[in-house]
Specification:
Elements (H helix, E strand, L loop, with lengths): L4 E10 L3 H12 L4 E5 L5 H6 L1 H17 L6 H4 L5 H11 L6 H10 L2 E4 L1 E6 L2 E5 L5 E12 L3 E3 L7 H4 L4 H6 L6 E5 L3 H12 L3 E5 L11 H14 L2 E3 L4 E6 L6 E5 L4 E4 L1 E4 L3 E3 L33 E3 L10 H19 L16 H4 L3 E3 L5 E5 L2 H7 L4 E6 L4 H6 L6 E7 L4 E8 L7 H9 L4 H4 L12 H12 L1
Helix pairs in contact: 1-11, 3-5, 3-9
InterPro entries: Class-I_Pyr_Nuc-Dis_Oxidored, FAD/NAD-bd_sf, FAD/NAD-binding_dom, FAD/NAD-linked_Rdtase_dimer_sf, Pyr_nuc-diS_OxRdtase, Pyr_nucl-diS_OxRdtase_dimer
Organism: Catenulispora acidiphila (strain DSM 44928 / JCM 14897 / NBRC 102108 / NRRL B-24433 / ID139908)
Keywords: FAD, Flavoprotein, NAD, Nucleotide-binding
Length: about 475
């Protein structure tokens, strides 16, 4: 490639989000010369447009909601949120969209950084077009890890460029509260952003093409969120959709025509309609893959359709589990695999080995930071039915636990365990209610540890805490069999 600067590294990582950082950290710690290629900010989607800023918006909202049931603080609950203060806090949590701190961490960890757009250019080769327009050719001695994540998948609405809709990025980084906000979607982004912006002062219209919200969680949890959103003033339109939308060049208003012919006029429209892999401009065709596709991997996170065990796809881009924490888990495994192969060490590929991504198939934890929170791991009832797995379903109202009553007067929440009746182990857990996110790790440990219910009886929950719901669930199961 004439006029191109060529550099060689042991490992090339494309994408400097939390996943890419963790891959590079593990390979560098193993003594491999590693470079990260990043076209935007070091820290990725999670740090600037997803996890951190969205939860910074939501935490004050959820706390404010809990004040309504806290004796002595009802008057504070009647006060409106200081939206400007919440947005300033969000800016701080997003590091003011400056990645200097993340770059400093890379330097301290001994990881090289090249800014620019990275593309595969053949086996173990990556070209990088820098912001200045220069082209670098990077060659990997051992591995290339694609950690490019996902981007918003937009519906085929005509005139999208003129419409200038929000995606999840604009929804988490907006500088001011829109007076009227419409959201198309029914999933996590749609419900979390409806929760946040309604509380911050927007009149939110939530347009769901589905008959209900959050179709991948237990129905009882989705129903609780739907009830609370409506109580807060969100206008939810089920079994609906957008037939067309235009932004007025004069007023800036967005005029939305729904499929039933009715019209909604708002200041902003958020399209929360799913995610697509960032592989459309990745040079996929140079290694026999198709641009825009998800990258299918094995349990060692090696790309299945590419020979030679040199190409890895880690995090959201492989579609196994679209969560930052799960991507970081994959990164730790992929980093260990890359290092072992580079040093010609044997790989222990038994289930639950540090080289095998078993948890992706067994226990993927998720928290939906709505009001109320939803925390879930493992199977849901619908998934068990769809896959033909026989489970015992155990339910309990969290509000009947003393710790919940002390947490919030009139606590509304529900818990469900799914138990394999043959092995008598927990295979799924869902909690919905204020503060339940902190119950999730115990459920994750119970599932990954394959702990029989007889052993769980001896894990005594502290009194009076919400975690006592574990005891009540086990008692309910004992009394039912």
């Amino acid at each position: 490639m004439p006029g191109t600067t060529t550099r060689t590294f042991d490992v090339i990582v494309i994408g400097a989000g939390p996943v890419g950082e963790n891959v590079a950290d593990r390979t560098t710690a193993a003594g491999l010369d590693t470079v990260i290629v990043e076209a935007e900010r070091v820290g990725g989607e999670c740090s600037y447009w997803a996890c951190d800023p969205s939860k910074a918006l939501l935490r004050p909202v959820l706390l404010h909601s809990e004040l309504r049931g806290t004796p002595g603080l009802e008057s504070a609950a009647n006060q409106t949120l200081d939206a400007a203060a919440v947005l300033r806090h969000r800016n701080t949590m997003a590091s003011e969209w400056d990645d200097a701190g993340q770059v400093e961490w890379l330097n301290k960890a001994g990881i090289s950084l090249i800014r620019g757009h990275g593309r595969l250019a053949g086996p173990k080769e990556v070209t990088v077009t820098t912001p200045e327009g220069d082209v670098l050719l990077l060659t990997a001695r051992h591995a290339v890890a694609v950690c490019t994540g996902t981007t918003a998948a937009l519906p085929p609405l005509p005139g999208l460029e003129e419409l200038r809709p929000w995606t999840s990025r604009e929804a988490t980084s907006a500088k001011e509260v829109p007076a009227r906000l419409a959201i198309l979607g029914a999933g996590v982004v749609a419900t979390e952003m409806a929760t946040a912006w309604q509380a911050l002062g927007s009149q939110v219209t939530l347009i769901a093409r589905e008959p209900g919200l959050l179709p991948r969680v237990e129905q009882f949890a989705a129903d609780l969120v739907t009830e609370r959103l409506r109580e807060s003033g969100v206008d939810i339109r089920f079994d609906s959709g957008i037939a067309g939308a235009v932004r007025s060049p004069d007023s800036g208003d967005v005029h939305i025509t729904l499929v039933d012919g009715s019209e909604v006029v708002v200041d902003e429209l958020l399209l929360a309609t799913g995610r697509a892999p960032r592989t459309d401009d990745l040079g996929m065709e140079t290694v026999g893959l198709r641009a825009g596709d998800w990258l299918a991997v094995d349990d060692l996170f090696t790309v299945e359709e590419v020979d030679g065990e040199w190409l890895y796809a880690v995090g959201d881009v492989n579609r196994r589990a679209l969560f930052t924490h799960q991507g970081k888990y994959q990164a730790r495994i992929a980093g260990a695999v890359i290092a072992a192969r580079a040093h010609r060490r044997p790989l222990d590929i038994r289930r639950w080995s540090r080289f095998v991504g078993t948890a992706d198939r067994v226990a993927v934890p998720q928290v939906v930071f709505t009001d109320p929170e939803i925390a879930a791991v493992g199977l849901t009832t619908a998934e068990a039915e769809r896959t033909g797995q026989v489970v015992d379903v155990v339910d309990y109202e969290i509000g009947q636990v003393a710790g919940a009553a002390l947490h919030t007067v009139g606590y509304r929440g529900h818990a469900r365990l799914l138990i394999d009746p043959r092995r008598r182990t927990v295979v799924g857990a869902t909690f919905a209610g204020a503060g339940v996110a902190e119950l999730l790790h115990s459920a994750t440990i119970a599932i990954t540890g394959e702990m029989p219910v007889e052993r769980l009886w001896h894990a005594v929950p502290a009194f009076p805490t919400i975690s006592e719901v574990w005891l009540r669930l086990l008692e309910t199961y004992r009394d039912a069999i």
